[in-house]
Amino acid sequence: MQGKTGYFVGKLIELVVTLFLVSLLVFIAFSIIPGDTARVMLGPDATEAQVELLRQQMGLDKPLIVRYFTWLFGIITFNPGTSYAYNMSVGTLIAQRLPVTLGMSVFAMLMVIAISYPLAVLSARKPGRLGDQICSVIGHVLFAIPPYVASLLLILIASSMFRLITVGTYVKPSDDFLAYVVCLLLPSFAVALPKIAMSFKFLRSSIIEQRSSDYVRTSKSHGLSDLRILIRHVLPNSNVSSITIISIILSDILGGSLIVEQVFNLPGLGRLLLAAISRRDFPLLSGIVFYLAFITVLLYFLSDIAAAVSDPRIRLK
Amino acid sequence: MLSTKTKYRSPEASAFYTAGLILLGIVVTAFLVSLFWTPYSPDATDAAAKLIAPCAEHPFGTDNFGRDVLSRVMSASKYTIYISAAGVAIALILGTFAGIPAGYFGGYIDKGIMLLGNSIMCFPGILLALVAVAVFGASVTNVIWALGLVFAPTFARVCRVGTMEIKELDYIAHARVMGVKPYRIMGFHIFPNLVPQLLPATVIGLANMTLFESGMSYLGLGVQPPDASFGKMLSDSQAYIRVAPWLVIFPALMLVFYILGLYFISEGLRVNLSKGGKR
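YS: structure for the whole thing
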């Protein structure tokens, strides 16, 4: 198999194998937990018979390999068991919380693109000038601020200066979509800040590199305007590499929003994750962890495909 | 390659070094001084001196238990430096031992190691480290191991790519013909030449690990109370953000100084490497 389909099939196989390994990692992590899960759940007062009964109900008496495939089957069919702590289906719990985390990630990504692209283009027009240097220094500083620290600082600024943002209120998108957007605005911005800096830095150097290449000089000597060269030639060439960066940024944003939710008291996956950790609710925990990893793997896969579609040279490597 | 002959330093790199060393110096000095002396005991509570704004006696103010924030910030820098250094050391060792053979032997060894590394990298942000701590319990040792494991693939990648380039060079082929054993080639002929690439990766690893560690401490899954850490201090002070903003500002500032200082130094190293490499 060669060429386009060969490349895509290869990537697809890679995707499946990676997902399999990820599932194995998650399962192993939760199987080597020190202590007896059934005993931990029932507490020290339970009798041996009660523990044995629960162990049978949970399937803990079966061999490891059987338990793995039962778990894997549940995960694939989006029915990964019942949470101990909430006594609810793990799938329902995750589906309830997903709009918060996903919404934040999408808004943050939009902010990254909307802010870093224009700034990078402007900055790269005259590299080394004052404006460019100021942007670069600010970029470095923003890059070093952890998202949750940025959230705290944003809360501090917002509460002392404007007194308009109420922290800790979450509105469902089905109730009032506008209010939903407003309440996610500040947290999304906090998650986006360091990634804006990252995307800016990367895109800027990529544009500067492209501008010094031969084809730009040729287009210039043909009399094309700077704007046209930028839009038609420079940006598409910088885009190919920025697709890969965007997938990395998206995965970072997803990870960052898990913590930022905690700062803003938003009922997202991050809070669910922490609740699951503190209550040692392993079916819920393994479900969240696997699906988050699943989203990330899928993002990487899609970015590989997108990069290969927009630049045929990648397929030949 | 790191060569003494080409000591070229661009002014850009020097500016990064200076800025980085100053910022890092502030945190490291605070840490070193805290080993011998802090203005007050970091855990000593004082009911008469709750939430005092920065003043002559308490330059950074006091928290809701009357503890001196300057003393707590100083002693918190200890964990930040210790965890990032120990975690990076583990990641460096694991990454080198996985990455160099992967690049050197290629084939199935390479595929296997890289697949494992990639699947570790599939977990967004601190998720994997959180899970590890959730399973094995929150303690400084567990945080170090968890972060070391999460960061190992980054170092393995650097080693693998570098090894793949170096092993094509004539002197490696020569050594192979001479009958030098693979482990000797990897350890004595390839590894020293990877140091220039590993150095910026290590510095940036320290910074990223601090980002993760402080996040975990913020969530209460890192350094455990009563020990002070920047993340824990920030999460404790959140409730007083309106009445006592200094509780947020000073730990945040120290944390950002440490991370930013490391970023600047790694940027300086990178600039020097990219310009010095084209001899």
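YS: worth flagging: The two ends of chain B are 10 Å apart (CA to CA).
IM: good catch. Also The domain at 16-33+67-277 of chain B is CATH 1.10.3720.10 (MetI-like fold).
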